[in-house]
Design a protein that fits this description.
The protein is of the alpha/beta class. Helix content is about 40%, strand content about 15%. A 6-stranded mixed beta sheet has the order 2-5-7-6-8-9, with helices on both faces. Strands 1-3-4 form a 3-stranded antiparallel beta sheet. Strands 10-11 form a two-stranded parallel ribbon.
């Protein structure tokens, strides 16, 4: 097995053992549609007063959720703005130690050299893994947290765009789904850069190595999971050339063939990495993002 694929596979196998009876979607695979969640999810938004951390109250069909965002660098409306969404089980506000934080590695480590506004959105349930593991027993938790993030992003886009800043939305893995969902249902940012993700999330939970973390209930009802999670057809209705996806050739989680096909005719960049090693390839990810953010394309 290729080393990148092996690095993807071993941690998932270990995690499956640790999860035990706490596998994803073990309680329920029922969920409202993305469209219904978009209509019913409302936000109580804070007053934005420059750089800093902001909590958002999201009222959803499954209860009150806790998305948030962090304005890490604000240079002004005359500069472009990057809105970034983290991957699954990251802690995007923890800027110390060795915690999983792709925003820190890709952007904060060199932020003084990036002439742009930098914002990261934190999905609900991403303050505490124990809470996340408890709640992810229901498929509706995943759909609701993604749509909560999508609506936080849209509020930020609406707030910033009226002042003239060019907005680029990017995200990795889970954040790539949020990026693609935002383009599908709003398409209000100027450019989209989904990383290590496509538009068929069900493949991750039913066919990829990640299926080991998913309960039998999902495997036994694969078509229902596909109907709920996948948005390939809705995504395809957007014909604008305003997206530049990036995938990894040895990715065992977001499998290249399936996710690349989900983008239709849109060109897809591919790096010679796996899912885990791809998320650590900060320089390569930054090299893909910055030309689109800074207008050199």
């Amino acid at each position: 097995m290729n080393k990148h694929a092996l690095i993807d596979s071993l941690p998932v196998t270990l995690a499956a053992f640790m999860f035990g009876n706490s596998k994803m979607f073990r309680e329920s695979i029922e969920s409202p549609s993305y469209e219904e969640l978009l209509k019913t999810t409302t936000l109580k938004y804070p007053d934005i007063k420059g750089e800093g951390f902001y909590e958002v109250q999201a009222n959803t069909l499954i209860g009150q959720l806790d998305p948030a965002f962090y304005i890490a660098q604000w240079k002004g409306y005359s500069y472009p703005t990057l809105i970034y969404h983290h991957g699954n089980n990251e802690r995007p506000f923890h800027n110390y130690g060795f915690g999983k934080n792709t925003f820190k590695r890709i952007f904060l480590s060199v932020k003084k050299d990036i002439p742009a506004n930098l914002i990261v959105v934190r999905a609900p349930y991403h303050c505490c893994f124990r809470t996340y593991l408890r709640e992810i027993g229901k498929l509706s938790t995943l759909t609701s947290l993604m749509i909560a993030s999508v609506k936080v992003v849209e509020t930020l886009v609406d707030f910033i765009s009226v002042k003239g800043s060019r907005i680029v939305l990017s995200g990795i893995s889970l954040g790539g789904w949020v990026t693609n969902l935002h383009r599908t249902f709003f398409n209000s940012a100027d450019f989209y850069i989904p990383l290590l993700a496509g538009t068929v999330p069900s493949d991750v939970f039913t066919s990829s190595i990640y299926r080991e973390l998913t309960a039998d209930l999902a495997h036994e009802n694969r078509s229902a999971v596909e109907e709920t999670l996948d948005f390939k057809e809705q995504f395809a209705k957007r014909s604008e050339d305003n997206i530049s996806p990036l995938l990894a050739s040895y990715d065992q989680v977001m499998r290249l063939k399936e996710q690349k096909e989900s983008y239709g005719k849109h060109p897809v960049a591919v790096i010679e990495k796996g899912h885990f090693t791809g998320s650590l390839a900060s320089a390569e990810l930054r090299k893909h993002i910055l030309p689109h953010l800074l207008g050199r394309w």
